[in-house]
Amino acid sequence: MAGKVNKMVEKADLFKNGKRIDGRTPMDLRPLKITAGVLDRAQGSCLVEWGRNKVIAAVYGPHEVLPKHLADPTKAIINARYVMAPFSGQEEHGRSGPNRRSIEISKVAKHVFENAVLVEQFPKTMIDVHMEVLQSDGGTRVAGITAGAVALADAGIPLRDMPVGLSAGKIGETLVLDLDKYEDNLGDSDMPFVILPRTGEILLSQMDGMLSREDISQAFDMIFEGAKKVRDKQIEALKTSYERMAAQVTTQGETNQ
């Protein structure tokens, strides 16, 4: 089954006979499930289950900025926080609290959301976007940002477009989408992207490893094609959440009559 690998993996195992180690083709994504509105006490929330990744995001605000002198009179301040639970992985994440990696990803997530949210509509306020990785298997930064984008929309915060995160990389001579932990660690390169599908803007582009100019151009094309599938899952999650809320309101109204 795609997404399940239960043996010690070597680089030679990653891609054989046109298939990746979990049975996917180069363009296949891991199984993806997105659920909006999973937390009652947040303004907006989302759970992303992407392969063996499980990432939850919660949005609070817009709310008052404290201390008040930090407030921006022209726009909202985005406070993005990405962390990995100490039980999320078997390697370097065995302690609680932020580390250098989580601080870096929090900063790039803040940049993404600042360029997606219509912050000018909420001057002198702050919007908190919390992303926590409950279980990790490669690609958690793009999964976290994808979850945070759905949580913002679930909170009713207006966006220029809903950001979509996805990674591409290279295994030997083959470019692939949506790298898992083994492909990330043992492959030749990894490129996490975050885009706005409606406008085609790239809000995040990082690269670990070496790729030629032609490889990068092809990776762009693959990312934009694969992002359509992620975007469809985001929209489906929000529609399901709104339908659930509408049904609850209807049921409550009938009960009160």
Features:
single chain; 257 residues; alpha+beta; Ribosomal Protein S5, domain 2; five-stranded mixed β-sheet; five-stranded antiparallel β-sheet
Write the layout of secondary structure elements.
Layout: E1 15-16, E2 19-20, E3 32-36, E4 44-50, E5 53-64, E6 77-84, H1 100-114, E7 125-135, H2 140-154, E8 164-171, E9 174-177, H3 181-186, E10 189-196, E11 201-205, E12 208-209, H4 213-256
Parallel strand pairs: 6-7
Antiparallel strand pairs: 1-2, 3-4, 4-5, 5-7, 8-9, 8-10, 10-11, 10-12
Helix pairs in contact: 2-4
Fold and architecture overview:
The protein has 257 residues and is of the alpha+beta class. It has one domain (14-256): GHMP Kinase, N-terminal domain (Ribosomal Protein S5, domain 2, 2-Layer Sandwich), CATH 3.30.230. The protein is 31% helix and 29% strand. The chain has four helices and twelve strands. It has helices at residues 100-114, 140-154, 181-186, 213-256; strands spanning 15-16, 19-20, 32-36, 44-50, 53-64, 77-84, 125-135, 164-171, 174-177, 189-196, 201-205, 208-209. The strands form three sheets. It has a five-stranded mixed sheet with strand order 3-4-5-7-6. Strands 8, 9, 10, 11 and 12 form a five-stranded antiparallel sheet that branches. A hairpin with a 2-residue loop joins strand 4 (44-50) and strand 5 (53-64). The longest helix has 44 residues, at 213-256. The chain starts with 14 loop residues before the first strand and ends with a helix.
